[in-house]
Write a structure and sequence with these properties.
With 447 residues, the chain is of the alpha/beta class. It is built from 16 helices and 22 strands. The strands form four sheets. A nine-stranded mixed sheet has the order 9-10-8-11-12-13-14-15-16, sandwiched between helices. The chain has a six-stranded mixed sheet with strand order 17-18-22-19-20-21, sandwiched between helices. Strands 2-7-6-5-4 form a five-stranded mixed sheet, sandwiched between helices.
Length: 447
């Protein structure tokens, strides 16, 4: 974060300083008092069960020098009526001050946002100081927190933008209009919230409509709903994918014995061979999206691909781990929807080993299609895994879809006990579910 005194922050957000207004914030803003850094700002919210203001002293012990909140605390505090609105206003103003030397990227899609964001950050970091979303902090709080991590030296700011309702992405682009907007796909994630894929497409299209003057839209040439977003802007458009007409085309995808892809990325002017240290053929498409976005910012293809070859992903995204019993764990437990689960199952099938075991939990927010979607994923899993294990009663339709031989285990603890007793050397086990199912607990216990 650029250095700002509390007096300056209060002027920006329309608040009042309780305490020393000369105190200067020099480190990022956080919502969790335990994550505060020396010189940082703790943003306090009052929730149904906890009041963040009560943790101001803990934030101070961790290094925070001030609080942004709705009442005074033991630390110097900027007091406002609405802490969320104040956080967003502060972030918008900070990025506005840096705008002349800063290129802002935004990435959205029904799946693959976080992986593509990680790959794009790697490609850009080879060309200049880059700040990117940590994990999946992609909502009305996470985006401004990432924006506030930008500093005077930052050249590239990469923002993952998610949505659960029509208008969510428009609200985020209202905070900062991206110079380069990447739309990956339109799937069925959060279908229960949106009601239809058409509504999801409209929401993802808000990113293209929110482009800054002179900006570029980077669109998936393989997804008709995404390609149709060309009509939403008069800005330049670049495309990526396997399609013949893609501006950054993925060719010759091959997988090694651990399911890691190599491919050729080709443009009109150049081509580059790429081997990714990541599991899953779908990562080649994500890499082409990252390369197309980097090219739009002036990063040469060879430089971008060299950086992509050493990229890593946020935790719990197809994260391989050797287990003590000799099995391999693919921890993809951060989140799930039908499309991302199919991609993970394809990756499982590509890894050489003994038995392939798919441990799958509930996929949330699928609405009235939930049972059918779970059943279809189960059938897909049965064709790619030797054993399908559904965890929790809500995931039972997965086992039903997988058919004979599939198992239903009551809960995470039962799953851990069963796996510990049955995994053998060379088995490959995939763990995947929506975040609410907390299958990360299963992965952590095995590891």
């Amino acid at each position: 974060m650029i250095p700002l005194s509390l007096g300056e922050i209060a002027d920006v957000v329309g608040g009042k300083v309780e305490g020393d207004s000369s105190v200067t914030v020099t480190a990022p803003a956080v919502l969790d008092s335990r994550q505060a850094e020396p010189g940082g700002l703790f943003v306090a919210f009052t929730g149904e069960r906890t009041d963040g203001h009560d943790y101001a002293e803990q934030a101070g012990r961790a290094g925070a020098v001030a609080v942004l909140g709705c009442r005074a605390t033991p630390l110097p505090t900027v007091v406002v009526q609405d802490a969320r609105a104040a956080l967003q206003t502060l972030a918008a103003q900070v990025v506005a001050r840096l705008r002349d030397g800063l290129t802002v990227f935004a990435v959205t899609g029904s799946q693959g946002k976080t992986g593509t964001k990680d790959l794009l950050a790697a490609a850009l970091s080879a060309a200049g100081p880059t700040v990117a979303t940590v994990g999946s902090l992609n909502n009305e709080l996470g985006v401004p927190l990432t924006m506030l991590r930008a500093q005077a030296a930052t050249r590239f700011l990469v923002l993952e933008m998610g949505a659960r309702h029509v208008g969510d992405i428009a609200a985020l682009t209202g905070l900062v209009a991206p110079d380069i907007a990447v739309v990956l796909n339109v799937g069925v994630a959060h279908l229960g919230e949106f009601g239809s894929r058409a509504a999801i497409a409209r929401t993802k299209g808000e990113l293209v409509q929110g482009l800054a003057p002179g900006g570029t839209a980077v669109l998936n040439a393989d997804d008709p709903r995404v390609v149709a977003m060309r009509a939403l802007t008069d800005r330049p458009v670049s495309t990526f994918g396997r399609a013949v007409h893609a501006d950054v085309r993925v060719l010759d995808v091959a997988l090694d014995r651990l399911g890691r892809p190599s491919c050729t990325l080709r443009t009109v002017a150049a081509s580059a061979h790429l081997t990714l240290p990541l599991v899953g053929a779908h990562q080649a498409l994500n890499a082409s999206a990252a390369a197309a976005a980097a090219l739009a910012a002036g990063v040469p293809l060879d430089r971008a691909t060299a950086a992509l070859a050493t990229a890593s992903l946020s935790p719990w995204r197809m994260e391989p781990r050797d287990l003590a019993c000799g099995a391999v764990l693919l921890n993809d437990s951060y989140n799930a929807n039908p499309d991302s689960t199919r991609a993970a199952l394809d990756a499982l099938a590509a890894v050489e080993g003994g038995r392939r075991i798919a441990v799958l939990g509930e996929m949330l927010e699928l609405g009235e299609d939930s049972a059918a979607e779970h059943h279809a994923v189960g059938a897909y899993a049965a064709a790619r895994a030797d054993l399908v294990v559904a965890v929790g009663e809500a995931a039972r339709p997965i086992a039903d879809g997988a058919g004979e031989g599939a198992m239903v285990l009551a809960d995470n603890a039962t799953a851990v006990d069963w796996l510990r007793g049955h995994l053998t050397r060379d088995d490959v086990v995939l763990v995947k579910a929506s975040r609410g199912a907390r299958l990360d607990e299963v992965a952590a216990a095995l590891a």
